[in-house]
Design a protein that fits this description.
The protein contains 20 helices and 15 strands. It is α/β, with parallel strands linked by helices and about 650 residues long. Strand 8 and strand 9 form a beta hairpin.
Length: about 650
Amino acid sequence: MMNNDAQGALVDMPNPSGSRREEGGGAVRSSGCGSNPGPDPREMWGGISWRCLATGRTLAGPQANPRCNLKSPTMGEDGGGRGCGTTRELQRLKQQALEYYRENDVPRRLEELLNATFYLQPADVYGHLNICSVVIATHFEVHETTFPELAEAEEVERSDAVSTAVQWVNETITQELQGIAPSNQAQVDRVLRTFFENKVQEDKERKELEKSLEESTVPVPLPLIPPPPPPPAKKKGQKQGLKDTLTEKPIIPPEPAEPVLCGSMAIGAVSLAVAKTSALLGSNPLYVNIALLKHPQEQPTKLAIPSLMVSLVSCGKSSPGKLNLMKEVICIPHPGLTAKQGVEMLMEIQKQINKTIEMPPPPKTEPKKGHNGGKRGQPITGKMSHLGCLTITYDTIEQPLLLIQGICANLGLELGTNLHLAINCAAHELMDYSKGKYEVMTATHKTAAEMVDLYVDLLGKFPSIIAIIDPFRKEDAEQWDSIYNALGSRCYIIAGSASRSISKLLEDGNISLPKSSGLIIKHTNQTTMSDLVEITNLIDSKKYIAIFGSAEGESSDGSLVDLAVGLGVRFIKLGGLSRGERVTKYNRLFAIEEELVQNGTLGFNEGYTFPDLNKDDDTAAESREAAAEVAGELREPPQPIFPAEAGEESAKP
């Protein structure tokens, strides 16, 4: 069902090949001169069918489009702008667009969506397409190196989940929401929650019935108890010592993954769509509508833009080098900078990283006798990851940090002043269960206790690191306590994948396991707007910090940014500065910031302070305030130094 018309669809977003897509204004514009603008897909796919869910009217598209577009770090100073151009230039742009869409598997995904729409024959075809675009951000994790069979199986599972979600919306949810005003978000979410609980119960009963039928027809063999493993053989000449009398503490096996009900994404998508509808009917931006949900008594007079966490390089398990520990090396601009200033600064750093990768290695020198110079001059290679940043070949923990440190020094930027660092360790991906240790580098394993020492040593060398995400598996509760006690006073210890789902956190009312400074929250699956408000209120009450993160397999819907601003989270983590689905969100962030400035309602974040959960709330608040005053970060942040300014100063006699 796909044709070659996709070759002509050009939109202004950066991508690995450096081609350009036009994002901004009300329509996707053709590359040719004098062509009529086509319809903006965001105006058709901005939310689910508002006509059938809310007022009986067909409403217009999403929030206002950003006017300050983020450009790719690989572009020139002019951003690669195009005018009418020649036929040859037009063909080149079309070819780049075609390659970009093929690389990102766009034709196949669109074909599947259109085929499914044709066979389902929904009465509200645009509502069907809208729900598919909203729910594409799901729980499915993106892996850089996945076997084709596993990727295909996951794609089938994902397709089934989307189809089930669409069926729920078309058949039941739409009927149950009839007559409810879109402005009554709490009631809408209660209906959605009840519907979902009933579906969970149905699924539980179905599985129990299937299990009972299997047990009645198939005899269950008795489990064989394996013999205990023989004691390790002693090395020749080894003497009896203390280590022989102590057995190493076995690791706790991984907890089973939380079950995700097929189709659950419909709940979160419908809740978000109703919030968009309410905002549109009230002539408010979505972020204002969310802020009113969190503060129902009065509209906030100031709204702050969350501090950015921007991924610059990736050296995780899927990277080609030996280093596994750093799935993301993240830069955090100083809170005194605007979002646009911060991104401009980080784009300059990203350009320098690109140049470093493209630069040929220095010629190898003959190593001295007895010295191994084999790795000297090893080329630094990189490819674009799904995180929107470069995956770089490195072999030691310090290398990526030294790279960024050196680039900042060359640009006149000071780590710890103009910007800070964070590390996403993704430790759950590093555990070698056959050895019971974390494989931080290829063939280099560390016990959970040794990992604490590693992090303490790393922060001693690089004090500009102010956040560590997922330093351990969630099962290693003892080590979470240890690292918080050791580093919690000067660094955020963040639980991302190590945290439980929002629904589980709200069900238990406990966010303190594992022990951390804050949590990464995401809008996925059955999470409603009311759930997001409730979990951020809980996080705020415990003096934790909230980081709003983008989901795996996300869409280009920029609503995530509106949610983060409206909820008042401390940080927003959108990934790198490349790939269209991420760049759209940065552009939305710029647009919101500009609106707040124009309205005089832009608030500012204070300096980075670290909560002490080991003390009572009053003492902890006093210590944080005193530490901030000593550091001089509370009231008068240092003036940012931009690369251009640094260059001008160095050029002065």
